[in-house]
Amino acid sequence: MIKFRLEERAKSPYWLIILSPFIAILVAIILAGILIVLAGANPFESYYQLIIGAFGSKNSFAETLARATPIILTGLAASIAFRAKFWNIGAEGQLYFGALATTLFGTGLVVLPSILMIPFLFIMGALAGGLLLLPLVLLKLYYKVDEVVTTLLLNFVVVLLVSYLLEGPWKDPMSLGWPQGKSVIDEGVLPQILSKTRLHLGFIISIFFAFSVWFILSKTVIGYRIKSVGLNAAAASHAGVPIFKTVLIVALLSGGMAGMAGVTETAGLKGYLTLDLSPGFGYAGIAVAMLANLNPIGVIFSGVFLASIYVGADAMSRAMNVPTYLADVIVALTVLCILLSLVFVHYKILFFGVKKND
Amino acid sequence: MIEFIEIIFTAGFWAATIRIACPLILATIGEVLCERAGVLNLGIEGIMSIGAMVGWMTVFLGADLYTGILAALIIGGLFGLLHAIFTVYLGASQHVTGIGITMLASSLGFFCFKLILPASTTPPKIKPFQPIDIPFLSELPFLGPAFFQHTPFTYLAILVVIFAFWLMNSTPLGLSIKMAGENPMALEAQGIDVFLVRTIAVVLGSALMAVGGAYLTLSAFDAFYFGMINGRGWIAIALVIFASWKPERALLGALLFAGLDAYQVRAQQLAGAVIPYQFFLMLPFLLSIVAMVIAAKRTRYPKALLIPFRRGERH
Amino acid sequence: MIMTTLLKVEKITKKFGDFYANDQISFEVNKSEVLAILGENGAGKTTLMNILFGHYTPDAGNVNFEGNAIEFGNTNNAIKLGIGMVHQHFTLAENLTVLENIIIGRQSIFSLSLPKRQARVKILELSKKFGLPINPDELVANLSVSEKQRIEILKTLFLDCKLLILDEPTAALTPQETDALFSTIRNMIETGLSVILISHKLNEILAVSDRIIVLRNGSSVGEIDTHSADREKIAEMIVGKKIDYPQKKKIPRKSKVLSLVDVSYDKTDAPNLSKVNLDLYGGQILGIAGVAGNGQTTLAKILSGHFKPTQGKIVFNEAKSVHTSPKSFMDLGVAYIPEDRNSDGIVGDMEIWENAIMTEMDDPYLRNSLGIINKKTSFDRSENLCETYDVRMQSIRQRSRLLSGGNVQKLLLGRWLMRKPKIIIACQPTRGLDEGAIASIQNLLLKAQQNGSAIILISEDLDELLTMSDDISVMYKGMLSDPTETSSTDKLSIGLRMAGDGFL
């Protein structure tokens, strides 16, 4: 019988660290290719259609970047939280809460010139997302209630709340019976940055936040504290690191990022709130963060990558008759393959055979 | 006003409670097995989803209902094996693996469904398990229609509870599973393969979760549609904590929860005009959060939960 | 008495990378004999035993048990042959019962029944035969350390063991419990069992063994008959060189720095404290003895600001009132060294410099007003620390988990000492370290004392307490005894107090 043992590497070879995410993506693509074959289509042609669909024209490229905007932000939300080992799976709900805040404040309640209105909406969205997460963080800190389940469950509650508001008190009277929120006022709408496309200012803003988060996490005291709490909270506490305060900041930052994703979609992409505003952007953020190994700058690239898969798969599915769910399968496979690659980066696998007694 | 209280005294309410509880019972006991062995299985929502799809599809393609259950069992076991390879053998993060598996299982399920039935605007139906009348007992007033006119799948779910209880308390495997979740070093010191025990627990648990999903398509309803699991998997995770990782308590918790859900549906019919339906639908999720807060205080987590066991690492 | 060889170990060698944990070790164990394996921490004793028990596979050599070669790397095989091991850190499941813990592993996991009734009978028989009273249905979590050890021993007896290996069995026992253990061992010997006793405590070995093997740096450096043993010679064999033992100088006591007044703690998340009173003076080393689990850790956490007393108060000399948090206590000059340096002290995955500055994040030298860390000054500070406190490392940018135990402790202690703390709470500061590191740490603590720091030394090592402390108090079931001057007490009286003597 072959047994194996995992031995921790003292130092991981640089080439492995750099190449492993790419190898992981490749494996995921190959595995998904098998599914394409099962669907009766040619995998090479399908992937070609996918790439064209994502980057083939100015329009599709813009669409990809527009799709990347919210998932870069939810990716940042997941990165920040997971670094501190705080499992915030509630980005979806925080996103919608941010969208609610945008609708509340941005459809006429407050009117400011654009230059102030847009930051105002982002601040409100961030606060909304952060405040939604806050009670769950406190539950974890004070009562040790597991945050994975609570953040997840709250997602469902928030979506139901949105459904109620859109069908009821916040329904846009001008929408001809369709449940959607009132339009964001002109001062609040994120301007187009590429003509004749849906690409809006939100994309630039998300890049800005990615760099900001990177700076905070790697150069400041709070970033250093977040890292220490994530790696060994007990040791950090014994060295005087304020655990409560640090986790609180993590939660507000994380929820805030996700809340702002709601702002970009409501005030940028669509201009108003709908029930299907987010087809799982919150959950996609987790994949984005994992792919980037929780690195905020990496999140930009993995966000664009994942967005290209979603956008490209739409086009591919129309052209090749392969169900669009393939995109979700590719993303899921990527997450698992990245996990695998992390094992290989940190551990060596040693096989040894055990001789049987004669 | 009195109508709200009268709801509890109708046989229909109790029958509905049991029906609603079954998928939760199966899913919760499945998760109990995994967590008792020390492995958090967040793949539950996805596994239930693909279990529902596979079970239904097997019957749709011509097999009988019991084969459908078997198919769900097998697909659940396979995803459980995948989970175990990552978390038990390779020691990868249980949180991320679980989420990855939920994503994979649900998307794979939807993909295959769309592949086989590409152009379906309304989901096609099958003939699900029909309620059977238990001789004599089903003729009792009130108790009959409430408890003894359920489908065979429902009674199967109850049997699973008994099986799980027996497994955990009276077999060496059950004791090994408990030990694996409390102190895997102790297990290894006795010469038992910790990896094998944990894998068996996760595979068995995941199989049960998938069967729980199949209950929805083979007994409770008769069609598969996207998003039908609707958070039941996550609710089960909350219920596991509420049940203190014991199968008999899982039954109780699921029944309590289902009772509240069944009540909520009926209350909605009475008050629907006044209170929007969304708030009733929120109740299960909010209640689960409350259940977790209550349980967190008096909780004795399996000591080795979430900690990967690495062979050969001594203190 | 005819000497029949039970176990024969020949030239066992085990390497980890380039490091020889065991280098050609040979010895024999006879029936009805207690063989002691003596050596410092890190000498290779546990590795050797793990090879015998099947946890490790050696690179060379063989082992014969009752004349047959044993199969390496197979614990099941070792158990079947009759080798049993009680590890230093117990392998018990706290949330299960005694019975469940003992019968685990007896049946294949594929069999369908759990013979609880027969097991219960056998356990009670063994319990009576060897004088190890226990209740099979008690939850292990409710047992004391010595009771848990009885369970571990019963586990091996339940499996009909012929050779029992005990790894550092007296680490957490009072002197009285140690005596009880030794008489149990003698009982077992009389029934035909053999025992291998691993320890670094020379005095205990001399009390109970028949023969002694000394290991040093992975090799066997001598085999002695206990009857004709020469203490000094053996000590030299263990250490191999002259050690710079700490010299304690008496210094005049300064003013009071800290008082605990009727402090109690009755929450359920830690062992409770009951009306603890304590006065601490500058330049004083107050030793606190006690069996693990009697409240020492709770006391340490209260003294360092991690826990708030549920009753009573803490009075610092200068401060009027104090907010209970680790940070505010730190600002008052309290330093806390936790007992498990690896899980609670050092962040293994961070680089050395990151651990070195962790307590200094308010220092404007290391970070500016916006919160940006100055890497250059941080590196300088860390290099300085490592040099001053002799932390041996390759670079301050290497992973902290690569440091040896002694260097980790020097780093942790050093970063506190750089702040010139007024009060140091040291919990088991030298546990698990080799003699050289132990001396270094003890010297550092004594130097701090001479500079005026007050030290609370919580230790299970009575020798250490007697050497280092000015006064000793004993912790028992959450109560703290009044301090007695070290010069007027001894191991026996401390031992009695540790077992409850003198407490209400």
Outline the biggest β-sheet of chain C: 7 strands, mixed
CATH architecture of the largest domain in chain C: 3-Layer(aba) Sandwich
- The CATH topology of the largest domain in chain C is given as Rossmann fold
Instruction: Report the average pLDDT across residues of chain C.
Output: 86
Helical fraction of chain B: over 70%
Strand content of chain C: 15-25%
Largest sheet of chain B, in brief, is: none
Choose one word for the global shape of chain B.
Answer: globular
N-end to C-end Cα span of chain B = 63 Å
- What gyration radius of chain C follows from the Cα positions, in whole Å? 25 Å
Report the largest inter-chain contact: A-B, 46 and 46 residues
The first-level CATH class of the largest domain in chain C is given as Alpha Beta
What is the average of the pLDDT values of chain B?
88
Strands of chain B, total number: 0
Number of strands of chain C: 20
The number of helices of chain C is 17
Tally of individual helices of chain B: 13
Cα Rg of chain B: 20 Å
How does this structure look, described?
The complex is a heterotrimer of chains A (358), B (315) and C (504). Chain A has a domain at 69-290. Chain A contains twelve helices and two strands. Chain A has helices at residues 14-38, 43-55, 58-83, 91-106, 114-143, 147-167, 202-219, 221-238, 243-270, 281-291, 296-320, 326-346; strands spanning 2-8, 347-353. A two-stranded antiparallel ribbon of chain A has the order 1-2. The radius of gyration of chain B is 20 Å and the shape is globular. Chain B has 13 helices and no strands. Chain B has a domain at 23-117 and 148-231. The longest helix of chain B is centred in the middle third of the chain and has 27 residues, at 194-220. In chain B, helix 3 packs across helix 11. In chain C, the strands form four sheets. In chain C, strands 13, 15, 16, 17, 18, 19 and 20 form a seven-stranded mixed sheet that branches. The radius of gyration of chain C is 25 Å and the shape is globular. The mean pLDDT of chain C is 86. Chain C has two domains: 5-239, Rossmann fold (3-Layer(aba) Sandwich); 256-346 and 403-498, P-loop containing nucleotide triphosphate hydrolases (Rossmann fold), CATH 3.40.50.300. Helices cover 33% and strands 24% of the residues of chain C. Chain C contains 17 helices and 20 strands. Chain C has 504 residues and is an alpha/beta fold. The interface between A and B is large, with 46 and 46 residues.
